Write the structure tokens for this entry.
Amino acid sequence: MRWVVTGGAGFIGSNFVRRALLEEWCDEIIVLDALTYAGNMENLKPVFEHPGFTFIHGNIIRADDVDKALRDGADAIFHFAAESHVDRSIESALPFVETNVVGTQNLIDAARKHKVGRFMHVSTDEVYGSLELEDQKRFSEESALEPTSPYAASKTSSDLLVLAAHKTYGLNTIVTRCSNNYGPYQFPEKFIPLFITNALENKPLPLYGDGKNVRDWIYVDEHSFGLKLAFEKGVNGEVYNLGGECERANKDIALAICEVTGVGKELIQPVEDRLAHDRRYAIEPFKAKDKLGFRAGPSIEERLVEVVDWYRDNKEWWANIKNGAYKDYYQRMYAQRTGAK
Ligand code: NAD
Ligand code: TDX
């Protein structure tokens, strides 16, 4: 079985590639990745020597790069490649449209041309928009798509293009929508690795707004396994919500990180809120549990010690990132929020 994985040098894509090769989910993986600021070959080091591993440095918006990855055909494309950070999309939306929308359509066209077995589109709960804290419901696969950020709107567009390719051309597709992931190798612009690595350096933890926004957390391994299940058992053309069933307010996660890293909670610094900050995400994973046998696994509190240990033991990995171009990003993004110059 040969799989092409786009975005395989990123956080979730690399988790999927490592597990798929080391646990023999398939024989061969071709990673196609543009190595943007978020892509990191270090994430793939454990599989460099694996005989089934090939890396192609290329961009999903370029037809010749995609053709190269699909030259020998593929039983599946697992499409992770994306611009993935909401704050960056608020600052500059065009790269999100280019990669997430144009790139996805380019990949769909190539999948048709090369007669790919199944197109696995990795999407997000953000396509459903926001719930209120007091809402009793969670979003199901039937809920309306009401994205708020440019990131979420670009992901929603890509979902619709994949579903349209299924309906129009009969492309074999699965769309999965997952909740917020956390775990090793997550780029430290995202909430949990940012707070853990700042705490390990005794730096302030910038909590947006009142800190009451709720996210539904899933450990990255569980997402990867859910994708494998969806590939094997999912029905052509269907959408599956891979929900973590672990809703937590940001301030509670911040407090838990303080406790596990051993820093005082005074390090938590309330800062200016994100524009149009979605209040609450929650998806109903009933269909994935019933039809795929999907399970979200232990809660974030049970996982946090091991995750913090990983960041403590792999300081070189994140220090290299934080000492590079990231410094300018952090200064730009957070100086304005804290009012600092
Ligand atoms: P990430 O930002 O860590 O990694 C993205 C990867 O895609 C990087 O390796 C980058 O180099 C590559 N890439 C970006 N643009 C590219 C292009 N034009 N061509 C080829 N490669 C390109 O992202 P992530 O957090 O691992 O998310 C992966 C996928 O999962 C995304 O599609 C995201 O929308 C989705 N998702 C993420 C979460 C989450 O909590 N992080 C939750 C649900 C869904
Ligand atoms: O410095 C911060 N302070 C803070 O309070 C950052 C970076 C975030 N936050 C808050 C904003 C959110 O309520 O933490 C929460 C999580 O923020 P992010 O890590 O940026 O994730 P989110 O915006 O929820 O989006 C994530 O989940 C869905 C991923 O980045 C997306 O790629 C995925 O689709």
